[in-house]
Design a protein that fits this description.
The complex is a heterodimer.
Chain A: E1 4-10, H1 14-25, E2 30-33, E3 45-49, E4 52-55, H2 66-71, E5 81-83, E6 87-89, E7 97-99, H3 103-111, H4 115-139, H5 151-161, H6 169-180, H7 183-188, H8 194-201, H9 220-226, E8 228-229, E9 232-233, E10 237-239, H10 244-256, E11 260-262, E12 267-273, E13 276-282, E14 287-295, H11 299-307, H12 314-322, E15 329-336, E16 355-358, H13 362-373, E17 382-386, E18 401-408, H14 421-439, H15 443-446, E19 447-453, H16 455-462, E20 498-500, H17 514-525
Chain B: H1 8-14, E1 20-23, E2 26-29, H2 37-45, E3 47-51, E4 56-61, H3 65-72, E5 84-91, E6 97-107, E7 110-115, H4 120-127, E8 133-136, E9 141-147, H5 151-158, E10 171-176, E11 180-185, E12 194-200, H6 204-215, E13 220-222, H7 225-234, H8 279-288, E14 292-299, H9 301-310, E15 326-330, E16 333-344, E17 349-357, E18 366-373, E19 376-385
Parallel strand pairs in B: 3-13
Antiparallel strand pairs in B: 1-2, 3-9, 4-7, 4-8, 5-6, 6-7, 9-12, 10-11, 11-12, 14-17, 14-19, 15-16, 15-18, 16-17, 18-19
Helix pairs in contact in B: 2-7, 5-6
The chains are: A alpha/beta, B alpha+beta.
Chain lengths: 529, 397
């Protein structure tokens, strides 16, 4: 018996689910197929070690679009976002730096290192927030294409450019600078103290194979000022029950609109008649038919994996070959017997309730990058830590804790080749723990369980090609009308009736849900489904 | 000058912000930290320790205790079994609400009434015909609310009560670790899983220390009134003096409200043979209809966003709950006022409690609420929605 669907969505990550929910809400019959036993893709929570819930990959949330939360009534379906309270940068010498949600306390913290930086910090925040507001319409709309000559494209451009009309020239200069400079150069124009600049500079390189001094990394800083929680700009949060709960809330919303979701169902390939898709073949040979097929997978995986080069135009294949994935990060999740203690700031105080950045200086970050350039993981990497069990006791037994560590650099392309990763996994895990031990002595003895994810594991287990957490680097040449491939930035593909809705499309990666939402809107608007 | 509650020695040290207010003549902490976020999250994710000692507490005992209270209160508390508790209100002879609170049946002949305002005179005035003893234990019993999803597991560690047997609105006598004997009730003002702990003043600090110490593993933290206010708005709970004026505090009749007008009609049991204070007036109002209704409002976020965008500003919502009266309009005229409201971190909605005319009170009705942006008075649509806004299963579990 073959049911007929309006849309089959490949991949039950948060974008696939969001796309499905919007299509079904508009009355379409939708099926979501997920390869793994759990939904969420890289936005997933799993009890890898009994009693401890890990946000296995993605671990913080900021850019999840408020309109998606509203439209899909996600709070009703279990979404709870808990704000991260501060940012802590531990140091080898001195007290380190904590940026608090209180301007005066933060000013005094920074003033220990530089009185001038302390005063400029709030000014910087305001300027960044202003600039971020110009960008916000861009992530909430399909990508504008300045190279197009169609009047419709121009009208769209003008609409998105509206916020710029009140901007004064100097601001525009700053903005242009930001689009081209490196994180460090840009921050150097504002600040002098390393301990402040280093943790800020890394925002520009997360998920890319670039260093903090690489040109073009400055503008990614803005992304971090675009986030909002409860109307508060630049706020970051955790999802209760781990990041997977975001996906689960979207899944429950989708099901409430009638979406059918099948887990442990692998798609072998997209079914095609000529250059038109009409369904999928499952592993095992079963066929499922639909009017449209939407892939939330990483673009190279979608086209080379499920469609095949033969069915695609040469130019498109060339572009995809050039599409930069080259993952550069890993993840280490720890179950702890008790709360760690940082040497520079002892005690179990509030400073551990936000994110903790192991980025003591710009030189430290550059050194970490140097090793990565030549195909090694950093022996002393940048680590971004959160301890979600402090704000959300439901993820660990009483008194125990979960420590989530995002680690960069762990280049997919090791000098020995990516296949060497499995044999280096534990050495990589040791490097992370050894680094942490220097800042938080005694941590090793508290570890009950350790999960190490290398870029290789992310590719194999989560379909993140080359271990890229964003389905493609968020660098300027791969964003907006260029994502994933110029000319194919509006969720359409060279295959008729095959669409894209994953992080490899505009506006990109992160737990935003925007690609899934925008893909569904575009499909509905163009009456494709 | 406000006095100190029995927990003050601890709360004073913990309240590093020095943000206090006067609650019924006691120093009460508004927030221990710089923003109410963390404390609010303790209510919804961990366990919040809230000093609620300033509530007024009266123990009423004697052979006529039940009959006396049945006469006074809108529901017949004799129907409560010992170890059960009820939320209710009481009215004047005109059927206007004087106060709302809880009544617990501690034993066959002993009840404990809590109120927001002092009630000693009201109790005594009506007690003359009954064989009862009234003891004002407001200043001798320390009360601590322990609210949040981990509160039950935490209490298993710090008292000997049978936690699984203690159901919603039940109470039991128990021995607390470090706190001696006291009462534990499955009640609260947050709309979450939670308890209230009642101990003699002398035992307050011991209990507080035990909770704070064991509570570390359960996300238990001291929580102030700012966070409590956000949670009670989400829970749709009204507050005397804010959402309504107690009948004996009103300057004019128009300031008074009936239980029906406050959404407390469900607590009024008119089908009792004996009379109770306000029964005749309430029966009349029940038949003829009420003028006002207390409703929940969902303030339109997109309209708010548009309003702020018009001023070239990002949308802002207050960090704390607000409690200033704000005019509400419908069909071009004012039909009521919002009395308190808050951004709901749980529901991601901008909510308010409002008193409006009956014909504007049906769920789904589109009203307008005044909203001031950049000193400019504007109107924003707000939809009448059902309360409680936030109603998790664990609230009754």
């Amino acid at each position: 018996m073959s049911k007929h669907y309006d849309s089959i969505i490949i991949g039950g990550g948060h974008n696939g689910l969001a796309c499905a929910a919007y299509l079904a809400k508009a009355g379409r019959k939708v099926l979501v197929l997920e390869r793994r036993h759990v939904l969420g893709g890289a936005a997933v929570s799993e009890q890898v070690y009994p009693g401890f819930t890990y946000s296995v990959c993605s671990y913080v949330v900021s850019l999840l679009r408020p309109q998606i939360i509203r439209d899909l009534e996600l709070p009703k379906h279990g979404l709870e976002i808990l704000p991260l309270e501060c940012s802590f940068a531990p140091a080898h010498e001195g007290p380190g730096l904590v940026r608090w949600p209180c301007a005066d306390t933060t000013r005094r913290e920074i003033a220990r290192y530089s009185a001038q930086d302390a005063d400029r910090y709030p000014e910087f925040g305001r300027e960044m927030a202003k600039m971020a507001r110009f960008l916000k319409p861009i992530i909430d709309n399909p990508a504008p294409d300045p190279t197009s000559l169609r009047p419709k494209a121009w009208r769209h451009m003008l609409k998105l450019a509206r916020p710029f009309k009140n901007i004064d020239e100097r601001k525009l200069h700053d903005f242009m600078k930001m689009m081209t400079m490196s994180s460090v150069d840009f921050l150097d124009e504002w600040f002098e103290s390393d301990i402040l600049k280093a943790p800020m500079a890394v925002s520009g390189i997360i998920g890319t194979y670039l260093g903090v001094r690489s040109p073009g990394t400055a503008y990614v800083l803005l992304h971090h000022y675009m986030g909002e929680i409860d109307g508060a700009m630049r706020a970051w949060g955790l999802s209760k029950g781990g990041t997977g709960q975001i996906s689960m809330a979207i899944a429950r919303a989708a099901e409430s609109y009638g979406v059918e979701i099948r887990t442990e169902t692998s798609v072998e390939r997209v079914l095609m008649r000529g250059d038109e898709a009409y369904g999928v073949v499952l592993e095992g040979g079963d066929e499922l038919h639909a009017k449209t097929v939407v892939s939330s997978l990483e673009p190279r995986l979608t086209f080379f994996g499920l469609v095949g080069r033969k069915a695609l135009p040469e130019d498109f294949c060339d572009e995809l070959d050039r599409y930069r994935l080259r993952g550069s990060s890993g993840k280490v999740n720890l179950a702890l017997d008790s709360l760690p203690e940082f040497k520079c700031r002892p005690g179990d105080g509030l400073h551990m309730r936000g994110d903790i950045a192991i980025a003591p200086s710009i030189a430290y970050l550059e050194k970490a990058y140097d090793q990565a350039k030549y195909g090694q993981f950093s022996e002393r990497p940048y680590i971004n830590i959160v301890i979600p069990s402090l704000t959300d006791p439901s993820v660990a037994p009483p008194g125990k804790h979960v420590m989530s560590c995002f680690v960069q650099y762990a280049p997919y392309h090791l000098a020995e080749g990516p296949e060497a990763w499995p044999s280096k996994r534990e050495a990589f895990g040791d490097a992370v723990v050894d680094t942490l031990e220097e800042f938080a002595p005694g941590l090793k003895d508290r570890i009950l369980h350790r999960q190490v994810l290398t870029p290789w594991d992310m590719e194999k287990d989560f379909g993140l090609t080359e271990g890229n957490i964003f389905h493609g680097e968020l660098s300027l040449e791969q964003l907006a009308f260029l994502r994933p491939v110029a000319g194919w930035a509006h969720y359409r593909t060279p295959i008729q009736k095959l669409w894209m809705c994953g992080s490899g499309t505009h506006p990109g990666g992160g737990v935003m849900g925007a690609p899934g939402w925008l893909a569904a809107q575009t499909m509905l608007k163009e009456r494709a489904v | 000058m406000p006095r100190e509650t029995p927990f003050h020695e601890r709360t004073r040290a913990l309240c590093e912000t020095y943000r206090w207010k006067d609650w019924s003549g006691y120093h009460a902490a508004c927030s221990y930290g710089l923003s109410p976020d963390r404390e609010y999250n303790a209510i919804r994710q961990g366990a919040a320790m809230i000093d609620v000692t300033p509530l007024f507490k009266y123990d009423i005992s004697g052979p006529d205790a039940g009959a006396f209270l049945a006469r006074l209160l809108v529901r017949d508390v004799r129907k409560l079994k010992p170890g059960r508790m009820s939320y209710l209100c009481w009215c004047d002879a005109d059927g206007k609400v004087i106060d709302d609170g809880t009544c617990a049946r501690l034993s066959e002949e002993t009840y404990r009434l809590t109120s927001a305002a002092p009630a000693m005179h009201w109790l005594h005035r009506h007690a003359r015909a009954f064989d009862v003893a009234i003891r004002d234990c407001s200043d001798s019993i320390a009360a601590l609310a322990l609210q949040g999803p981990t509160s039950r597991e935490l209490l298993r560690q710090v008292c000997d009560a049978d936690m699984d047997a203690l159901r919603f609105f039940g109470l039991t006598e128990t021995t607390f670790a470090g706190g001696g004997k006291g009462w534990l009730s499955r009640t609260g003002y947050t709309g979450d899983l939670g308890y209230e702990l009642w101990v003699d003043n002398d035992n307050a600090l011991g209990l507080y220390d035990a909770l704070l110490d064991t509570g570390k593993d359960y996300g238990a933290v001291p929580v102030g009134l700012d966070a409590l206010d956000i949670s009670r708005v989400e829970a749709g709970f009204i507050l005397r003096g804010i959402d309504y004026i107690g009948a004996n505090d009103a300057m004019i009749d128009a300031q008074k409200s009936s239980p029906f007008e406050l959404g407390l009609g469900w607590t009024v049991k008119l089908n009792r043979e004996e009379t109770f204070i306000g029964k005749d007036a309430l029966t009349r109002e029940k038949n003829s209809g009420s003028r006002w209704a207390l409703v929940g409002l969902d303030i339109d976020w997109l309209a708010l966003e548009a309003l702020y965008a018009h001023h070239d500003l990002p949308t802002q919502v207050p960090h704390c709950a607000w409690r200033s009266g704000i005019p509400i309009y419908h069909d071009g005229r004012q039909v009521g006022r919002a009395t308190s409201g808050s951004w709901s971190p749980m529901l991601k909605k901008n909510l308010a409690l409002a008193t409006v005319e009956q014909n504007a009170a049906a769920p789904g009705t589109e009203l307008l609420i005044e909203w001031t942006v950049e000193w400019s008075r504007e109107m924003v649509p707000a939809t009448v929605i059902k309360t409680p806004f936030f109603d998790p299963e664990r609230k009754r579990a």
